[in-house]
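Revision sheet: structure tokens.
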Amino acid sequence: MIQPFVINSLYNIISGLMIIPDTAKGPYPCVILSHGLISSKESSKYVALSEQFAAEGIASCRFDYHGCGESSGNIEETTLTIRLENLDAIVDYARNHVDIDPDRIGILGSSFGGVTCLLKASRDKRIQCVSPWATPYELNKTDDGNISDIKFKDTIYSDFLQYDVLAESAKVSHALVIHGADDDTVPCHEGKTIYERLQNPKRLEIIKGADHTFSNSVHRDEVISMGLTWFKKYLLKG
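Predicted:
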């Protein structure tokens, strides 16, 4: 069952989807899907994740961050602070949803969305488990200031410097880190360094030959299976 929703946050209006399993065994655990900097809730990777989670009795929440997809805001003006506030609002929405068990919430995030995933888990102990994919701990300005042909304002870089992602990661446990060995957007060593800082229990999976988005279908199926197994382990009862 797909339930569209719109909620207000401090910085913008957020558009999202709650995907509820078609069983009578609720309330359900929920995995919040935190997309990358210029992605959206319609990412084929996240759509596939939602379908797999639902089949296993786990709800999911896909949403568009500030300036992406159907949510309001200018992407050129987005920052980590804005995105973290968006994620705060989404977690509150999910925890208060009638079909969701508020004590069984996890977050899966990729790239910039992996950073927000880690920061949220560091600061909110209601988050039971996380899985950051292809996640950086630093954001360096390019020569022309563009990221994927988008001219972001300098505030995205200055704002990122306010956060010590590695120090925040040291407060996070129950985390599955996944990174492509051939990621040329976020070097693999960044994922490994984040993993080293995490508390146990934790797990690191480096996918040989995989790129930043796991665009190869074999790699994508592999990481989706890994993520599903991880969240089933920590969110499903019994």
